Amino acid sequence: MISGYRISYDLKDMDIIAINRFIANSYCAKGISLETMKKAMNNSLSFGVFNNL
Questions:
Q1: Which of 1, 8, 10, 31 is 20 to 30 Å from the Cα of 19, by its Cα?
Q2: How far apart are CA 1 and CA 40, in angstroms?
Q3: What is the pLDDT of residue 1?
Q4: Alpha carbon distance 22, 38 (integer Å)
Q5: Residue 1 carries which DSSP code?
Q6: Is residue 50 over pLDDT 70?
């Protein structure tokens, strides 16, 4: 493991609104709704990398 970072698959650790804002501006998911994003994340194995600093 790299010092200062942790990996989590717990959705409670993730800021779904911030993730949606980022993804909704991407080419492949332009305009994706928050509701669709929540559904996708709840039905996927999502990982987040977090800075422990």
A1: 1
A2: 28
A3: 61
A4: 14
A5: -
A6: yes
Each residue of 15-49: pLDDT tens digit? 999 999 999 999 999 999 999 999 999 999 999 99
CB 5 within 8 A of CB 49: yes
pLDDT at 34: 96
Distance (Å, whole) CA 22 – CA 6:
21
53 has a pLDDT exceeding 90? no
- Sequence-ordered list of residues with C-beta below 8 angstroms from that of 1, at least 6 positions apart, any chain: 7
DSSP string, 6-46: EEE--GGGS-HHHHHHHHTTSSTTTT--HHHHHHHHHTS--
d(CA 5, CA 25): 26
Place of tokens 């942790």: 6
